[in-house]
Amino acid sequence: MKRLLSVSVALLLTATTFSQNKLKPVKTRTMKFNAGIITNKIAESKAFYTGLLNFGVTFENEFYLLLHSPGEKSEISFLLPDHKSQQPLFHKAFNGQGIYLTIEVDNVDEIYKALLAKNVKIKVDLRDEPWGDRHFAIEDPNGVAIDIVTYSPR
Fold it and tell me: Are 123 and 116 in contact (CB under 8 A)?
């Protein structure tokens, strides 16, 4: 019984120490975020983001595409599933649910009109929210919801 109690206390202390260390933030001076989608629809994604949203190509090869937003402040990448150059963690294709991207723009009305003129299917019509956002939503070829928004200061 004494041994069981000692082991339990040791496990509890280890778990507590581990959880406390796990919660400490990583200290770094810079960090850049790049969302990536594993998909077979790399060509469709390239056409969508470059043709409709004016993204540019940063890098591409036969299995990977990296795009940048106008102004080059943000990036999004696309990777073929099950590619032999990648570790198993990066093999499974995105299933088209449970993710959204927000693209902040200076004039949401202008983007809305331009996309309507290109016959893009609008998933959420242009609207004003009580908290000040003006936005609408579309969907990319992978099923990713894209919220296009102009934030209003409150």
Answer: no
CA separation for the pair 125, 111 (Å, rounded): 12
Give the CA radius of gyration of the chain: 22
27 token code pair: 């200290």
- Tens of pLDDT, residue by residue over 50-87, are 999 999 999 999 999 999 999 999 999 999 999 999 98
Could you tell me if 101 and 86 are in contact, meaning their C-beta atoms sit under 8 angstroms apart?
no
What was the pLDDT predicted at 25? 75
User: What are the residues whose beta carbons fall under 8 Å from the beta carbon of 23, sequence distance 6 or more?
Assistant: none
Q: What is the mean pLDDT of the chain?
A: 87
In this prediction, residue 66 carries a pLDDT of: 98
How many CB atoms within 10 Å of residue 56? 14
Rounded to an integer, what distance in angstroms lies between the CA atom of residue 42 and that of residue 80? 7
In which element (H, E) is residue 2 found? helix 2-22
Q: How many CB atoms lie within 10 A of CB 96?
A: 16
DSSP string, 12-74: HHHHHHHHHHHTSPPP-S----EEEEE-S-HHHHHHHHHHHH--EEEEE-SSEEEEE-TTSS-
